[in-house]
């Protein structure tokens, strides 16, 4: 029979073997690269994913090899025309040399702090060489490319490659923006008032021209109407004169009938006239002759 001491020793040996075996293997993920350290000093870099072996007394540090984000706080930058800009930018980077990265910064947090400082310096250098309009409108793409190149050169010493730099926003400070807005508002109001004044002037000119043309048209129409009426009256008088010349008695009778019609239209048909008045000449007969008694003068 084996003694209990032999069993305990066997268990201890097995535990030691398992511990040594476990500490001698490590895995590398597809998104990582691993630095193997011996007593704190890097001895190897493993970039291939999978299961790997190492000495039990060595340790490993995993370094992300994906593209990482760097969010930069808004910074105030002075352009070449002395205008202040509030610039909000961000960067994308990856660790291309894990050993240099580990020996220079050692962690993502430290790398972000260092890159933030370098990014702000690059922003001030590049944007300080151009004016406000160039940053805001004209050549922002080229400026971002220049900033990325400068930042990439400086970050190379930390084993970092800068993939991209973007300016998310570049505006005037709030107080300047308000002043610019007020100035633009005043300018637009002045232009609007000028346009309204020009419109009122044009409208007045059009109305004056229309009134003048209307007066001319009405005057010409009245003149034409007066001429037409005059011609009509002349033609009527001619016809009357011609008719009168053909039959004087009938013309006298017609005139009397017209006078009767006009005089007897109202409800009051009283007349203050002599019975032998010329007005009543056709009341006694169709011949228009006054009665003998009425016609004979009194002795």
Automatic annotation (TrEMBL):
One of its GO terms (cellular component) is membrane. It is found in: Membrane. Gene3D superfamilies: Band 7 domain. It holds the Pfam family Band_7. The keyword Hydrolase applies. Keywords: Hydrolase, Membrane, Protease, Transmembrane, Transmembrane helix. GO terms for molecular function: peptidase activity. Signal peptide: none annotated. It comes from the Bacteria. CDD domains: SPFH_HflC (cd03405). Residues 23-184 form the Band domain. It is a single-pass membrane protein. One of its GO terms (biological process) is proteolysis. SMART domains: PHB. Belongs to the band 7/mec-2 family. HflC subfamily. HflC and HflK could regulate a protease. This is Protein HflC. It comes from Bradyrhizobium elkanii.
